[in-house]
Design a protein that fits this description.
Layout lengths: L1 E4 L4 E4 L43 E7 L11 H15 L5 E6 L4 H12 L6 E6 L3 H10 L3 E5 L4 H7 L4 H17 L3 E6 L7 H19 L4 E6 L16 H11 L7 E5 L6 H10 L4 E4 L13 H12 L8 H12 L18 E2 L2 H9 L9 H5 L4 E2 L6 H12 L13 H15 L8 H13 L4
Parallel strand pairs: 3-4, 3-10, 4-5, 5-6, 6-7, 7-8, 8-9, 9-10, 11-12
Antiparallel strand pairs: 1-2
Helix pairs in contact: 1-2, 1-10, 5-6, 6-7, 11-13, 13-14, 14-15
Length: about 450
């Protein structure tokens, strides 16, 4: 069967002939995942077309996956963080949904308090076990959508669930149908998709979900979960690890519309952000993230990272208030005692700090030379200089101007006597054997001491 595609303006083959491959023993892709060796990056040199959806957005799992790796949030903390996420999302609701656990009374109280705020975005959804009791709980609280675990690799189907592929599909379809019958829109979490047989299991299963959606008229979302962080974005890389191949298969071959495809990634191999970006690029409308990437093991895709990825793809922030990111970082560190690694992009204390003297000289002349964008405008964080033996007079001058928030008229230049005096003081520190950078408090004390002495 051929159809004319309005997206590509081409006649395309639309017959979908993918039948469940109900194999007798699990396909564990040992050629990729030997376990006693490092996973292999393999190529089949097959390319799929870029297929950016008309709309893309972010979803949040801070209160679900995020809570699995740190001390659980209190109800008050959940409410406060939810307020921050709402503000960050902006008037267009780019952060469209936030998912919650419902198991404890504390979590249910937090959901109710967040619902009472009446925010349109992010919409509150849940993650539940596949049981009628949990479906009733979702309905009782008043949520319209919930995630359901439908593991899709043979590692889970055969080794954990002790089922065949056919039994797993039948089991999953019955659960999704029950969810719909209980008045809850299902979001199917295809766990471990980067170790799954895409065309022998995932696509046939997704096609069954689309049939169920057509039958009931209830949208069925598909969340592609890179549970172990195995996803790859190299052009021509092989399934099951190829992110663009997975999204293309779900969209073009299983017939799942882009607006019903969501990517959920982990950062085990440092690929969470690039994998999420490629999921957008090749046809998924939603990427699932958590604040600062906090999540299972190495964490999830950082929400703040995808805010800036969105802006780069779309050429606009669409009203997202990125200064909230800095407020969130301060709240996590001061109120929750969470230590953000200093090198973390956008939120670490060193992310826009320059140490090298030659870089400091460039910043002093024009901050655009060594700052990624106007961090003062977007994050309320002006570029900083960390003073060491390599900073030179330029670095010290920039530190003074930044630390004391001096106007252009009052700013020090590198030839100023007080700057030279401080440079001599810094040099003495390192001549005496110091190896660490000099902290702000030390520089402040030295500067103010020299000023009291009457240094011009």
């Amino acid at each position: 069967m051929f159809e004319f595609s309005k997206k590509t303006n081409l006649i395309e083959r639309r017959v979908r002939e993918y039948i469940l491959n109900d194999i007798p023993s699990p396909e564990l892709y040992r050629e990729f995942f030997s376990y006693d060796g490092i996973p292999k990056v393999a190529f089949n040199h097959r390319l799929v077309p870029i297929n950016m959806p008309d709309e893309i957005w972010i979803t949040d799992t801070t209160f679900r996956d995020g809570q699995q790796s740190i001390t659980p949030y209190t109800t008050d903390q959940i409410e406060r963080i939810f307020d921050y996420i709402h503000r960050l999302s902006g008037p267009k609701g780019i952060i469209r949904q936030s998912e919650f656990f419902l198991y404890s009374q504390k979590d249910r109280d937090a959901v109710c308090r967040c619902l009472e705020k009446g925010y349109e975005f992010p919409e509150i959804t849940s993650w539940i076990r596949a049981s009628k009791k949990d479906f009733e709980l979702v309905k009782e609280i008043g949520l319209k959508e919930s995630g359901i675990l439908v593991s899709c690799s043979d590692y889970h189907v055969f080794l954990k669930m002790k089922m065949t592929r056919k039994q797993a599909v039948e089991h999953y379809i019955s659960i999704v149908r029950e969810c719909i019958e209980n008045g809850v829109k299902p979001r199917c979490h295809l766990e471990d998709i980067t170790r799954a047989d895409l065309y022998g299991f995932v696509v046939p299963f997704a096609m069954e979900l689309m049939k169920l959606m057509d039958e009931t008229g209830v949208p069925v979302k598909v969340r592609a979960c890179d549970t172990m962080g195995y996803g790859l974005t190299y052009p021509g890389s092989s399934l099951p690890r190829c992110v663009q191949g997975i999204i293309h298969g779900l969209n073009q071959h299983a017939g799942v519309p882009s607006e019903l495809i969501e990517w959920h990634g982990h950062n085990d191999f440092y690929r969470a952000v690039s994998n999420a970006s490629y999921a957008w690029l090749y046809g998924a409308s939603a990427v699932n993230c958590s604040v600062f990437g906090i999540g299972e093991r190495t964490g999830n895709t950082p929400l703040e990272a995808m805010v800036f990825e969105y802006a780069q793809f779309r050429g606009t922030l669409d009203g997202m208030d990125t200064t909230v990111i800095t407020e969130l970082a301060e709240y996590y560190e001061k109120e929750l005692g969470f230590e953000i690694p200093p090198m973390t992009p956008f939120v670490g204390r060193n992310f826009n700090v320059t140490r090298a003297g030659i870089h400091a000289d460039g910043l002093l002349k024009n901050e655009e030379i060594y700052n990624i964008f106007d961090t003062t405008k977007f994050l309320n964080r002006s570029p900083k200089i960390s003073v060491s033996n390599t900073s030179g007079t330029s670095g010290i001058a920039h530190w003074l101007n930044s630390f004391y928030n001096l106007s252009e008229e009052d700013a020090y230049n590198k030839g100023n006597p007080i700057v030279e005096k401080l440079k001599e003081w810094v040099d003495r520190q390192y001549d005496d054997g110091r190896v660490t950078t000099i902290c702000d408090e030390e520089l402040q004390a030295a500067f103010e001491g020299f000023m009291k002495e009457g240094t011009p």
